[in-house]
Amino acid sequence: MKKALLLTLLLLLPSAVWAQVALRASSIAGNVEWRAVNGKAFRPLTTSQPVQVGDEIRTGPDAQLILEVPDGSYMVVSENSKLVVEDFWGGDLRSLMNLMVGKVRFYIQRLGGRPNPYRVTTPTALIAVRGTTFEVSIDESQFAEVRCLEGRVAVEAVGLPNREVILEPGRKTLVRPGEYPLTPVALEADLMKNRVIHVVKKNVPDTNANGTPSVDVLAQDNDRRNRQSDPLGGGSSTTTTNTDRAKPTLNFPQ
Question: Quick check: is 114 in a domain?
Fold first, then answer.
């Protein structure tokens, strides 16, 4: 009974601590700016400034930031990144941040034998923390790449909750806007970031100065009545050069 109670307390500890203490910037390198949830302007972030829910952070070129969670988990925010700190429950997971653009590597602590129940969101992907170390990158096109380095990570697309991809260590996936996550591949493999659309060129009838299809095109168009030896048109099917056939009949009200 005591062991079960202790286990329950350990599982609830991240939530209790989060409700009392904000994130802390333990290391700042380069230009890192912060804007409070009710603030209007960005200001330089310092290690003495707690980061509250709803606050926005952005890092400049060659900058790096380490944010610590009260339970001992931490995240390394890379250069040219922009994120918003979150704190709300979705199912049995607690949202940690919304990464708008850039790259963040997460190191999640384990309590009670499993990773703490956090979730990371992007404009296109939802990442459930089932592993302890993973990385999320999102570019200006909102293509989200998720890389699992240790443990397991579940990835699904925003607005498409009926399918998720489980990443094992050493695997990654890509989520494009409005699409399901791609099949996981090895970290060193290439992901198809560009959507390929096969375009079939169709012949468009030539037109004369009046916008009427030319005679030579009419002789070879897709109208069965204009094709010689058309099996469906019978032996009497002939080719015509009458351009009036190509002109629509317009009926105007009296």
Answer: yes
Nearest C-alpha neighbor of 113 from the set 6, 233, 249, 229: 6
Residue 252 lies in a domain: no
pLDDT tens digits, one per residue of 3-30 = 444 444 444 444 444 444 478 999 999 9
d(CA 93, CA 14): 11
Of these ranges, 69-73, 111-115, 203-207, 239-243, the one predicted with the greatest mean pLDDT is: 69-73
Bridge partners, 119 (sequence order): 95, 128
Domain that holds residue 222: 200-247
- Tell me the sheet residues that pair with 166: 154
Query: CA 174, 79, 108, 55 torsion: positive or negative?
Result: negative
- Structure tokens given for 14: 């991240």
> Do 91 and 159 share a structural domain?
yes
Q: What is the CATH number of the domain that holds 125?
A: 2.60.120.1440
Task: Say which amino acid occupies 14.
Answer: P
Tell whether 171 and 225 lie within a shared domain.
Answer: no
The answer to whether 112 and 157 are in contact (CB under 8 A) is no
- Give the strand pairing for 56-59 and 82-85: antiparallel
User: How far is it between the farthest Cα atoms of the chain?
Assistant: 97
Taking the CA atoms of the chain, what radius of gyration do you get in angstroms? 30
The DSSP string of 52-85 is -TT-EEEE-TT-EEEEE-TTS-EEEE-SS-EEEE
